[in-house]
Amino acid sequence: MKIFLSMLLPTKSSELNRVVNEFNRHLGALIESRSYLYKAITHNNLASNHGLLRQEFTRNDDPTDALHLSARGTGQFVNNIKNLVIYHSSSRSQSNRRQH
After folding, report:
1. Rounded distance, CA 56 to CA 70, Å?
2. Does the global pTM surpass 0.90?
3. 74-84: buried (b, 16+ CB within 10 Å) or exposed (e) per residue?
4. pLDDT over 70 (residue 100)
């Protein structure tokens, strides 16, 4: 059994993103050091070129909200998870078939 972990998502705050990035670096190191942790789910496609949460994925109803995703952002977040888990399951199934 493998455990999938999600990296923290980018935010709309550069200051908060520095903390997020540091946490994600530590999480990445933890994943590499533990065989039961499979892979980090990254969310680079949610970030702008400047590393901030892209506007189209944010809740626009509250300009002070730097964290929460819109429905579209939540959908992309879910797709990121599905893509990794399905890819992992598919790769594992193909590997098992080759071994038999």
Report:
1. 8
2. no
3. eebbeebeeeb
4. no
